[in-house]
Amino acid sequence: MAKPYFFQILFGFLGFILFISVPAAGGGSIHELLRDHGLPAGLLPTAVSSYNLDLETGVLEAHLDRPCYAKYDGMVFFNETVRGNLSYGGLRGLVGLSQEELFLWLPVKEILVADPSSGVILFDMGVAHKQLSLSLFENPQDCSVGGEKFGKGLIRMISEGIGRKLIGFLGE
Ligand SMILES: *[C@@H]1O[C@H](CO)[C@@H](O)[C@H](O)[C@H]1NC(C)=O
Ligand SMILES: *[C@@H]1O[C@H](CO)[C@@H](O)[C@H](O)[C@H]1NC(C)=O
């Protein structure tokens, strides 16, 4: 009687693996979608659980399991929903994606790959532009929730430090 149970457990286990790998494969297709639009797959993390692309407006909306952080050149924050107008080589009118610059989180407005052979990707934050190496974005990353504590803690530390100095300065 041991054998039937063994197979039941084995098939149950295989079923479980299939079951959990389906959302992962579904999440993978947004990375293919990015590639099909001349953008690197790693622009969005593996944490994308679903997405939809409005074929009329070109608006791509990616839903993440949770807001999270990934490190490319600097830290990038992905909100639960990342939305942008997808075109070939570009994501414009972005919402939900910020890049850390000198301890400030700047919302990224546009991401462009004008010429893939140049090997660079442009992050436009309105107040600043940044050219990054395309190779940083080759593979989707597992982003972490922990970065939040680190980033916010650091910002708090610095702003409190500056605040204290300012109070000290004004108090004199
Ligand atoms: C998205 O971009 C296309 C092409 O640049 C433009 O025609 C369209 O109006 C844009 N849609 C939105 C919602 O911004
Ligand atoms: C993330 O998105 C939510 C809902 O749209 C918004 O309320 C929140 O301010 C966003 N967080 C950041 C850090 O941009």
Comma- or semicolon-separated keywords:
at5g01610, DUF538 DOMAIN; binds 2-acetamido-2-deoxy-beta-D-glucopyranose; nine-stranded antiparallel sheet; 172 residues; alpha+beta; 2 helices
SSE map:
Blueprint: H1 2-36, E1 48-53, E2 59-64, E3 68-71, E4 75-87, E5 90-101, E6 104-107, E7 110-112, E8 120-124, E9 129-133, H2 147-171
Explain what the structure shows.
This protein has a single domain, classed as at5g01610, DUF538 DOMAIN, CATH 2.30.240. A hairpin with a 2-residue loop joins β5 (90-101) and β6. Residues 13-28 have low confidence and may be disordered. The protein contains two helices and nine strands. The protein has helices spanning 2-36, 147-171, and strands at residues 48-53, 59-64, 68-71, 75-87, 90-101, 104-107, 110-112, 120-124, 129-133. Strands 1, 2, 3, 4, 5, 6, 7, 8 and 9 form a nine-stranded antiparallel sheet that branches. The structure holds 2-acetamido-2-deoxy-beta-D-glucopyranose (2 copies). One 2-acetamido-2-deoxy-beta-D-glucopyranose (NAG) binds at residues 79-80. InterPro entries: At5g01610-like (IPR036758), DUF538 (IPR007493). It holds the Pfam family DUF538. This is DUF538 family protein.
